[in-house]
Design a protein that fits this description.
The chain is built from 15 helices and 15 strands. By secondary structure, it is α/β, with parallel strands linked by helices.
C-alpha cells in the first residue's frame, strides 16, 4: 500500500487513521514529477468505447519503483468502477504489465473484478493486454445527449428496492404520479418483474390521451437498456436472468414506443442538471449504499458505470472491507448508512439489534436531531470523508456542481455534511471551493423529480 507522506489537515473525529486517496495520489504525482516515464492505460467497453489515461511512473531502475504497483492498481481499480471495461490495455513497464496480468485473473487478488467486468457485465472474458502505446485504441467516449426532452406525452418510471414510482408527463408537467410498494428482491420469477413494470406503465397510460415516449431509471448496471447486474433482480435464478436482461427491450418492442432506461444515479444527476439549468454535475446519493451519477459539461450522459460505491477512497491498509467486493476503503463504507452503522459502533451508540436497517438509521438520526455528541461526530466524520472524496472524484470527473442527497442527508445531517466538505475544501483544496457548487435538494430540484427526469430521456420527432 502506498505510504502517506503528508498528514491530512482535517482529520475525521472518529477516524484518525484515515488516509485520503486524493492526497496520496497527489503526493505520488509530485514525487514522480522530475523523473517520471509515461505509461498509458486503455479501457475498452461497450460499443467499442475506449478511455485512454496517461500516467507518469518511476522508471524501472529507480529506487522508488516499487511504489508504482500500488499506485497503478488503485488508479485502475477506480477507473474500472467509474467507467467500466472488459479489456485493459497497458503500455509501460513490463514488470507492471505482468503484475496487472497476475492480479486480474480468475485466481488473482482482483478475481472479483475479473469475473464481474468480464462475464457478468460485458459477457466476455476480461483481458489484460500488454502493448505499445500505439496499439491502444484511440479514446472514444462521446456519451449521449439523453434527457431534457419535455415535449409531448411521456411516461417516466423509477424502480427502487422497496417501491416503484411512475409519472405521466405532458410537455414537462407531471399530471399523474403513483408510488407503490413492491418486493423485487424476494421474487424469483422474471414475469413478476415484467408484470409490475407493465402495470405501472399501463396505469400512467390510462391518464393521458397517448404515449410518445417512455423513460425509466433503475438501480444496477444498465448497458444498452439491459440490466446486466442489478440488486433488484438478485432473486432471479441465473438460468432465468437473460429474461431480466432483456425485459426493457421486450417492453419497447411490444409497445412500439421509444424507450430509454438508465442507471438511477445518472437520472438523479440529470434531474439536478435540469433543475439548476447547468451541466458538469455529479450526483451522490448517501442511502443504503452509495449511488453516483454524472452529466458532463456538454450535457451528455457518458454511459460510464459510475459505481463509486466500490471505488477506493481510503488507502489505509486497515480500512473497512466491503463485504461484496472484498476490497478495502471503498465508497460504500464512507458515504452510506453502512458508514453510519460502522461509526455508531465506534462511538458506543447502542442500536437495537431487532431493527431493520432503515429503522436503525432513523434511530441514530433521532439522536442526531437531539444534538447527541456521538451522533454529531458521526456526521462530522462523514462530512470530512465526503470532502476528501469529492476532491478525489474531481481528479477523474470534470465537475462544476455536486448534488448531495439520500436518506443520510435528512434533517441536520445534510448541513453537517456540507460543513465538513466546505471545511476540507477551505483547508486543503481552496481551488475547489471556488469551482464546485454544492447542493442539497431544494424544492426546485424536488419538483423535477426522478420519474419526471426519466420521462425526459428519449428523444423523438
Amino acid at each position: 500500500m502506498l505510504q502517506l507522506m503528508i498528514k491530512p489537515q482535517v482529520l475525521p473525529p472518529l477516524d484518525q487513521n484515515f488516509m485520503p486517496a486524493v492526497l496520496i495520489n497527489r503526493q505520488f504525482r509530485h514525487d514522480v514529477e522530475s523523473c517520471g516515464v509515461k505509461a498509458v492505460i486503455g479501457l475498452e467497453r461497450n460499443e467499442q468505447e475506449t478511455s485512454r489515461i496517461e500516467l507518469f511512473l518511476f522508471p524501472d531502475d529507480h529506487p522508488l519503483f516499487e511504489r508504482n504497483f500500488s499506485y497503478v492498481e488503485r488508479i485502475i481499480k477506480f477507473l474500472l468502477w467509474q467507467r467500466g471495461g472488459h479489456t485493459l490495455y497497458f503500455s509501460g513497464s513490463e514488470k507492471i504489465a505482468a503484475f496487472l496480468s497476475k492480479i486480474y485473473n480468475a485466481n488473482g487478488e482482483r478475481s472479483f473484478d475479473y469475473h464481474f467486468f468480464g462475464t457478468q457485465v460485458y459477457e466476455k472474458e476480461f483481458r489484460v493486454i500488454a502493448c505499445t502505446e500505439d496499439d491502444i485504441p484511440l479514446s472514444h467516449e462521446t456519451g449521449k445527449k439523453l434527457g431534457g426532452h419535455l415535449n409531448g406525452y411521456r411516461i417516466g418510471f423509477d424502480l427502487g428496492a422497496s417501491d416503484r414510482k411512475v409519472s405521466a408527463v405532458v410537455n414537462g408537467i407531471p399530471i399523474f404520479s403513483e408510488e407503490k410498494i413492491w418486493e423485487p428482491r424476494k421474487n424469483t420469477d422474471p414475469d413478476y418483474h415484467y408484470r409490475e413494470i407493465m402495470n405501472a406503465i399501463q396505469t400512467a397510460t390510462s391518464k393521458i390521451q397517448r404515449v410518445d415516449a417512455i423513460g425509466g431509471s433503475s438501480a444496477g448496471i444498465i448497458i444498452g437498456n439491459r440490466p446486466m447486474v442489478a440488486s433488484l433482480f438478485r432473486g432471479v435464478p441465473e438460468n432465468d436472468y437473460n429474461k431480466v436482461k432483456n425485459i426493457f427491450l421486450r417492453i419497447r418492442e411490444e409497445l412500439g414506443i421509444p424507450l430509454e432506461v438508465i442507471n438511477d444515479g445518472d437520472v438523479t444527476a440529470l434531474a439536478g442538471s435540469m433543475a439548476i439549468g447547468e451541466n458538469g454535475i455529479l450526483g451522490i446519493a448517501l442511502g443504503s449504499s452509495e449511488a453516483v451519477g454524472y452529466v458532463n459539461t456538454d450535457g451528455h450522459i457518458m454511459g460510464w458505470l459510475n459505481e463509486l460505491a466500490f471505488a477506493p477512497v481510503d488507502y489505509n491498509p486497515d480500512a473497512p472491507i466491503d463485504e461484496w467486493s472484498g476490497d478495502k476503503g471503498c465508497g460504500a463504507s464512507y458515504f452510506s448508512q453502512q458508514c453510519v452503522f460502522r461509526l455508531a459502533e465506534i462511538t458506543g451508540i447502542d442500536v437495537p439489534d431487532d431493527l431493520q436497517d432503515a429503522e436503525k438509521l432513523k434511530f441514530i438520526q433521532a439522536k442526531l436531531e437531539e444534538k447527541d455528541d456521538d451522533a454529531i461526530n458521526i456526521w462530522k466524520t462523514m462530512g470530512i470523508y465526503l470532502g476528501y472524496g469529492i476532491a478525489h472524484y474531481a481528479d477523474f470527473y470534470e465537475i462544476n456542481h455536486v448534488l448531495i442527497l439520500g436518506r443520510c442527508t435528512s434533517g441536520i445531517g445534510g448541513n453537517l455534511l456540507l460543513e465538513g466538505v466546505e471545511k476540507v475544501f477551505a483547508e486543503e483544496f481552496p481551488e475547489l471551493l471556488q469551482r464546485i457548487q454544492l447542493y442539497l435538494p431544494d424544492e426546485t430540484i424536488r419538483r423535477v423529480g426522478q420519474s419526471v427526469a426519466a420521462a425526459s430521456l428519449p428523444d423523438f420527432q
